[in-house]
Input
Amino acid sequence: MPPMRPLRGALLPLAVLLGLAAGLLAPAQATSHRADRTVAATSGTRTSAEDNPLAGRPWGTYEGGQEMAWAPYEKASGTDKDLLGYIALAPKAKWFGSWIPDSQIAQKVDDYIVNAQHGDPQALVQMTIFRVNPWEHNACTRLPTKAERASYRQWIDSFAQAVGSTYTAIVLQPDAPFALCAPHGSLVPSNLVSYAAKKLSAQPNTSVYIEAGAADWPHAGSQGGVDAAVKILVRGGIQYAHGFALNSTHYDSTTAEVARAAAIAQELDGLGYPGRKAVINTSTNGHPFEYGDYDLGADANNPKVCGSVTAPSKRTCVTIGIPPTVKVGAERWGLPRKTNRLARSYVDAYLWIGRPWLHDQADPFVTSRALKLVRSTPWYTPPTTTG
Output
């Protein structure tokens, strides 16, 4: 078992997390409830994944209180508003988890979809589900109780019903390697993820991407790491899902993640799960590093982007990476030719799944940190002025 990420489970329920989708920004926020959505009744095993479901349609953009950057953005002015807008108005996969009660999740999802689509039923809405409890390090010490398993299924059922026929891309259960440390090798956590993959994939326009860790976790760079990732996916229901997600909470390079995506997809194909492609988180890896090289510090209000490390020569800085896009093979990203070639074959999109503008990607939102992130990313272009 590789070194675990720092424990964040106690912080996550406090986060009112982020939000959502991409592409074109709609000019106004819809306020009415959506029309009834048709819900598919059954879901069978997918023999192959269809063409990229994230391409060829607008990506919705959420503008409201479920986005942690929204209030700071609304209150800002001048240059700060432009900088915060780069985060607040960007397409992101908003996180939903156990901090939202079973009785409220359907309404939360419904409200989020209405806002993100801005009245356009063709718009794609992106979401992340982080609902298995216990998770993180707690998943290594105990299994979900019978009541927790029932609650999980109820929560997922309500989530799926709220999604209905909405065009959605759903990243399922970040930090997935924790499923491998379940006591006594139990498959209970993986079975819950598989339940969600099947239930959500039954919706007619939903594409599920099950998280499989990152190129540096588990077992960075080794074939063993690929085997472990494949085990996570097979146990977690890749038979139902469109594909898998990588780097959701890590900071590793896009080049490394694309190579890992290709290796996983090829191995899945050999096991009878053809056509599964990846989405890769690029919100965190403008200055890529392997997890553990960067000390995030103990102060939850720490506004610094760069932190101390044990070896000063390896000092690294967190900043925002490639903007959300389905143009994964574009030369403008400055990636090696081999990476672009593999990405075109094995990656559906680069998405913003992680939340580097938060401290250790959890509550709270620190405005000064967010401003530094935008100023330091190579992809932000300040608006031009005339006169």
About this structure: The longest strand covers residues 125-130.
